[in-house]
């Protein structure tokens, strides 16, 4: 059941976020019809699975890894995320990191900047999970300011 996955949130019918799923939870995600997993966490971290890419592909889903350093999110990380999201418009996508902090910010930016949701709605999941620290607050402000009109 999806609700058991750490910090799981449904953002839209085709988009969900969470903290790091385990192997059994990846199978649950696949069974729920998700087609692409985007991992914003780090592969060498203690929370990471040994071979998440292999596990995801064995379940019939695609996998994208965009390692975002929690203490140093970068504009190129967000650009890469937007590229992956933009090239998969008709797929059900699950975005995760360790605790759904990075993921909730990236998804909020996507929902606002690309899907046109008002900021309050776009960042509802992020606000429900955490209050960004100074580094992440600056990252969000910069990303919103850099967005084309």
Summed up, what is this model?
The chain is of the alpha/beta class. It has helices at residues 23-31, 52-58, 75-86, 102-113, 119-122, 124-129, 134-146; strands at residues 9-12, 15-18, 36-39, 62-65, 93-96. Strands 1-2-5-3-4 form a five-stranded mixed beta sheet, sandwiched between helices.
CATH class: Alpha Beta
Tell me the CATH superfamily.
Protein tyrosine phosphatase superfamily
Written as H for each helix and E for each strand, in order along the chain, the element string is: EEHEHEHEHHHH
> Termini distance?
40 Å
CATH architecture: Alpha-Beta Complex
Give the biggest sheet.
5 strands, mixed
Strand order of the largest sheet: 1-2-5-3-4
Strand content: 5-15%
Which parts are unreliable, with pLDDT below 50 for 5 consecutive residues or more?
none
**How many strands in all?**
5
Please give the radius of gyration in angstroms.
14 Å
CATH topology: Protein-Tyrosine Phosphatase, Chain A
Q: Which overall shape is indicated by the principal axes computed on the Cα atoms?
A: globular
* Approximate helicity band: 40-55%
Q: Find the structural class using helix and strand composition.
A: alpha/beta
Number of helices: 7
Written overview of the protein:
This protein is α/β, with parallel strands linked by helices. The protein has one domain (2-142): Alpha-Beta Complex (Protein-Tyrosine Phosphatase, Chain A), CATH 3.90.190.10. It has seven helices and five strands; from the N terminus they run ββαβαβαβαααα. The chain has helices spanning 23-31, 52-58, 75-86, 102-113, 119-122, 124-129, 134-146; strands at residues 9-12, 15-18, 36-39, 62-65, 93-96. The protein has a five-stranded mixed β-sheet with strand order 1-2-5-3-4, sandwiched between helices. Strand 3, helix 2 (52-58) and strand 4 (62-65) form a beta-alpha-beta unit.
